[in-house]
Specification:
The protein is of the alpha/beta class and 370 residues long. The protein has 2 domains: 189 residues, Rossmann fold (3-Layer(aba) Sandwich); 171 residues, 3-Layer(aba) Sandwich (Rossmann fold). The chain contains 14 helices and 13 strands. The strands form 2 sheets. The chain has a 7-stranded parallel beta sheet with strand order 3-2-1-4-5-6-7, sandwiched between helices. A 6-stranded parallel beta sheet has the order 10-9-8-11-12-13, sandwiched between helices. Helix 3 crosses helix 4, helix 7 crosses helix 10 and helix 8 crosses helix 12.
């Protein structure tokens, strides 16, 4: 039996956000008789590490960030590459902070490296954004196309942001953020169960938002919308799913504006498919997005999605999506109009658009082999 193709995925994290979800989802569905994955993280503690190891994969911890201590990061990364003897290193990134990992991979003679673009702006907090953007643009100009490198992106906007004009467009592969569709097929019984669990009535009109609490996701805008929307629609509820650095400030807003009975924080959940059954609409007021997996899931579940006009148009794979500028009154008007829209499952529509993980994983397998 031929040796398996060994792939290192870097980085994953405790946020359980898009990149981590994508890498672990691919590992779940890939043909393990042909491929072996390991994972590397910058987190000193990884809450899902035990579960990952049970699948036969290994997890490495890098103790220093490349942009903060490039020498130590380089040494640790090279040691990890030497131990793993990888055929491919799959590097996931939102924006350029350094190129130390790419240099380490090439110096260690790894046959192939994939640089995978996942976002359309720097993901830093408000105070560091100008510095981060300047560094990103400078490093992007230094990119040099290489035959031993694969250039992947979740959308064309993400590709443009990470690679700019340094990489030929014909060298970039758009890899869809595919999902397992069956769990998102609408189920009325699950809807009733989840609503009871969350303390929601069957007559409540529920707006859902799923994502890390961070500058990018912009939940504070949605809370301002909700404050005024509640005056016009007393049966509305907002369910916010996720964790992150902006969670406490969002909770403070809710308390200060007496919205405790209107806004529900669930924390991190690993059953987003069930939660989506309980929603009536999904709202995503992001300041920027690569191509959010949440939007693929929501459309499969038949939810009407209202998203900011900063979200890539490639996210619209059904008719159940509307792009809106971040004007509070406009969001209130459109959300209220949705109360009369009938919901139906759209799993087959999403599958036809190419977002079925069972089909997409074959494309990834062939790309790894190639």
């Amino acid at each position: 039996m031929p040796d398996k193709i060994r792939v290192l995925q870097f980085p994953i994290g405790n946020t359980k956000g898009g990149v981590t979800h994508y890498a672990l989802n691919n590992w779940r569905f890939i043909d393990k008789s042909q491929f072996h994955f390991d994972f590397a993280t910058m987190s000193p503690y990884l809450s899902i590490e035990e579960d990952i190891r049970k699948t036969g994969a290994d997890v490495y911890h890098i103790t220093e960030y490349a942009e903060r201590n490039p020498e130590r990061f380089y040494d640790e990364f090279c040691l990890m590459l030497k131990k793993g003897e990888y055929d491919i290193v799959h590097l996931h990134t939102a924006h350029w902070k350094s190129m130390v990992a790419e240099n380490a991979v090439r110096d260690m003679g790894v046959p192939y490296v994939i640089i995978h673009a996942h976002n359309t702006d720097v993901t830093s907090a408000k105070g560091n954004r100008q510095f981060e953007m300047e560094r990103h643009l400078k490093l992007r100009e230094e990119l040099q196309q290489n035959d031993t490198t694969g250039y992947w992106a979740c959308s064309s906007l993400a590709a443009n942001f990470l690679f700019g004009d340094s990489i030929s467009k014909d060298k970039i592969r758009i890899m869809r953020n595919a999902i397992e569709l069956e769990p998102f097929a609408f189920d009325g019984q699950i809807r009733r169960e989840v609503r009871r669990e969350l303390g929601l009535s069957e007559t409540d009109w529920v707006i859902g938002c799923v994502g890390r609490f961070a500058y990018q996701k912009n939940q504070e805008f949605l809370l301002r919308v909700m404050k005024d929307l509640y005056r016009q629609a007393r049966d509305c509820k907002l369910v916010l799913v996720g964790e992150g650095e902006d969670l406490d400030s969002c909770k403070s807003f809710v308390k200060e504006n007496a919205l405790d009975d209107v806004v529900l924080f669930t924390g991190y959940r690993n059953d987003v498919n069930r939660l989506m059954m309980a929603f009536d609409v999904l709202a995503m007021p992001s300041r920027f997005e690569g191509l959010a997996i949440t939007l693929i899931e929501a459309q499969a579940a038949g939810l009407m999605c209202y998203v900011s006009d900063a979200v890539t148009r490639e996210a619209k794979i059904t008719e159940n999506m509307e792009f809106l500028p971040l004007h509070k009154e406009l969001w209130i008007d459109r959300l209220i109009i949705h109360k009369n829209i009938k919901r139906q499952s759209m799993v087959y529509d999403v599958a036809d658009a190419g977002y079925d993980i069972h089909k997409q994983i074959k494309i990834i397998e062939n790309a790894y082999k190639g």
